[in-house]
Amino acid sequence: MATNIGYKYENEESIDSNLKCAICNEPFIDPIVTQGQHSFCSQCSNLWMKPDQLTCPICRKTIFRHSLKPITMIRFISILNQVFGKCILCNQSHIQQGNFQDHIDKTCPKKITIGTASTNDCLWTGFREELQAHLNTFIASALSNNTSLKILELGQCNVNDSAVQLLATNISMHNHLECLELYDNWITDIGVEYLVNMLQLNQSLSQLKLAYNKIGNQGVTMLIKVIVNHNSRLKYLNLEGNKLIDNSCIYSIFYLIKNNRALQKLNMENCKLSWYIKVLIKFYRKIFSLTNLEILL
Q1: Which residue range is the domain that position 248 belongs to?
Q2: Starting at the edge strand that comes first in sequence, how are the strands of the sheet with 236-238 ordered?
């Protein structure tokens, strides 16, 4: 049976039978198709196919694992992903199947979450809805009168813009922290604005790592302006994997290349930059860069 732990389907009897697996009789999850054009969930087919049972559940013809192909038709997958379900943890309804896993992994308030940080041996477990309050307490405690803290890592801690606001306020006048790691969280351009205000005041931070958040072109522009005009301490800025950063940021990158004073490394790998824009950036850097700025694309 396909794995759907954490949710149940709404109005399952009304779901088109063509969207259901013949083995588990539920909507497909990672569907595959046989040579005979019969479709099943990938996990269901793996459970069905045993050493002594290599036949199709529908037509009983012999099938081989290497002949099973994933269904990738955009229209079919799109229709399948629109099947609605209900989270059995928080009871939120009307969640599309394509968003089920994201809901469980990133937003469900009743999901048990483990919060970790690289300082104070913090290892917290509780409901996601309680994590924000814990983060607020932890941040205030970690930075309060702490002159020995050099690296603060809050990766994959569901840090949002509100938490960034508190964090930035505490770091602004904390002149001992050298590295702030906030990878894979929920930080948007709003959170970046708080960090920009912090960078105008903080005199110790040399590394700011914001990989795999929700930062867009506006956030890039704000960060570059503060680095060029108000901050001479930051050496490394990591924006890798922010999928909202696209070709429109090119003029901000050009501005950085031409006016950079202190930044030594900018990571923008796995953003939405086309190959042509990457070529232009490399060319512009070669012609106009006055420093040894390294840009990873």
Answers
A1: 112-296
A2: 151-153, 179-181, 207-209, 236-238, 265-267, 294-296
**187: helix, strand or coil:** coil
CB 21 within 8 A of CB 40: yes
Query: Is there a domain that residue 1 lies in?
Result: no
The model's pLDDT over 207-223, given as tens digits with 9 standing for 90+, comes to 999 999 999 999 999 99
pTM listed for this prediction: 0.62
| Least confident residue range of 49-63, 150-164, 278-292 | 49-63
Taken as a whole, the chain contains a residue count of 297
As a whole number of angstroms, the distance between CA 236 and CA 228 comes to 13
Q: Residues near 35 by Cβ (< 8 Å), separated by ≥ 6?
A: 63, 67
Query: In the chain, which ranges are continuous DSSP H helix?
Result: 42-48, 74-81, 100-102, 128-143, 161-172, 189-201, 217-229, 250-259, 275-288
The position carrying tokens 């696209």 is 246
> Are 271 and 157 contained in the same domain?
yes
**CB-count exposure of residue 149 (10 Å: 0-12, 13-18, 19+):** middle
129 and 56 in a common domain: no
pLDDT in tens, 242-255: 999 999 999 999 99
